[in-house]
Design goal:
Length: 197
């Protein structure tokens, strides 16, 4: 019979690896993204968020948090679009012009200068994510990418790269949500302060 790690040891190891990357992280880039998101919110600019696979699911999750969760008052949330959410648009673009353009084409149509794109990627090397950032950069859209592994091309071409050097896709995806929830709570707290002052 082969050797298997126990569930307890694996869970403990996973927890330790996640804690280690959180403890070692310089959070200044996240604070910079927080300020950019707050500017978008206060000036009614749009935010776009995208990813592939689990990162696409995270994009949809976080769009919900920022659309409603930061304000919890009708009409007061952030104008945010998860580019991974519309299956008709995604399959049309993938079929007609190629999967590598499913996000860049949406950015080309929907965004304006001063908007914000947040890309979620483990490797930072997915062609459709690179194309989305490049299209956004051409249109003077602020770009941020939350990345794992080496950060890939996206670390170099995004204006606010948030890089966690962890060679584990699941932890990389956990960190996308952790960053998103940090931002959500900070924006909610500051919105409440503004409303009460």
């Amino acid at each position: 019979m082969g050797q298997f790690s126990s569930a307890e040891s694996h869970i403990s190891d996973y927890s330790n690896r996640l804690q280690a990357i959180l403890s070692a992280t310089d959070w200044s880039a996240v604070a910079k993204l927080a300020q950019e998101m707050m500017k978008c919110w206060r000036s009614q600019r749009q935010v776009f968020i995208c990813g592939n696979g689990g990162s696409a699911g995270n994009a949809i999750h976080l769009a919900n948090d920022f659309l409603y969760g930061i304000a919890k008052k009708t009409g007061s949330g952030l104008k945010i679009n998860a580019l991974s959410a519309n299956s008709a648009v995604l399959t049309c673009l993938a079929n007609d012009i190629g999967y590598e353009h499913i996000y860049s084409e949406q950015i080309a149509v929907l965004s304006s200068p001063g908007d914000l794109l947040i890309a979620l990627s483990g490797s930072g090397n997915s062609k459709n994510i690179i194309n989305a950032i490049e299209q956004a950069n051409k249109m003077s859209v602020v770009t941020s990418a939350i990345l794992g592994f080496s950060g890939g091309v996206c670390k170099r071409i995004s204006s606010i790269p948030i890089h966690f050097p962890v060679d584990d896709m699941q932890i990389a995806e956990d960190l996308q949500l952790i960053v998103g929830h940090m931002l959500m709570q900070w924006m909610y707290i500051n919105r409440v302060v503004d409303q009460d002052s």
